[in-house]
């Protein structure tokens, strides 16, 4: 039996040696040996440092993706005694007729549409005042804002369930102090999704703030001095100087936020169970239920492939929409 560790070691060796040889092999008859050796050395060291990450991605990302693509075209099952046979696009045709799938897509789009724009704005306008502070104060606020993004989703879910407990939770205690009626936060179809959206606004801006702070800090001060000499207002300065120069950063934050939004899963699993009345029935939760509860493994693979295609499509559209040639 070959253990996965040996697969990983073989992939590391492959990525460290083969790409450098391939990229320099075409120059063998067009380049002097000395220049070829230098060029090969550059590619070799580059892929040597990338080899572990590429090997890890190959073993635990690309290979499962290929397997899932193949399984989505079969009636694959883990049940003993059932043979796997080719069914072609049958799973995908059945998926288009699944009302719960389209409902999960709609719920996920609502969540992404509500969290992404506000998250971008909050990240940018939190980064701006942080950047004006002394270096040590900047470090403190960056760490404080970034900390929620590295906390385990299980811990976050436990805290949220305590805060918004329908009985003696912190939120209801605060409402009682203010003379307002208590709420069944995660049991009310009109409140469950808004609560998750608001808590995402408050706790998922760490990466955006860090990245925006770095981008804003790299803009040359001379641009702002010229705008001030021309009498530009703060709004005009932001629109004509700051915003164009941070567009590449906005593309990065937008695409990563889109990927994270479409992959939302923990709140439905750990807090709401997809309810109430499927108001938090996200796509990933639907895939999870299809795989583990309905034992439709091939259908779950087809759903995962479609979700990946949707994420890629939306990311490409976002990139083309926000792409810019502005550099500094």
Task: Tell me the layout of helices and strands.
Blueprint: H1 4-25, H2 33-71, H3 90-96, H4 99-131, H5 135-150, H6 153-163, H7 170-177, H8 192-203, H9 206-217, H10 221-229, H11 234-245, H12 247-262, H13 266-272, H14 283-292, H15 297-322
Helix pairs in contact: 1-2, 2-15, 4-8, 4-9, 4-12, 4-14, 5-9, 6-13, 12-15, 14-15
Rg over CA atoms, rounded to whole Å, is 25 Å
Number of DSSP E strands: 0
Secondary structural class:
mainly alpha
**Residue share in helix:** over 70%
Secondary-structure element order, N to C: HHHHHHHHHHHHHHH
Q: What is the beta-strand fraction?
A: under 5%
Number of contiguous helices: 15
Shape: globular
Main sheet record: none
**Poorly predicted spans:** none
> Could you tell me how far the N terminus lies from the C terminus, measured between alpha carbons in angstroms?
54 Å
Q: Determine the mean pLDDT.
A: 84
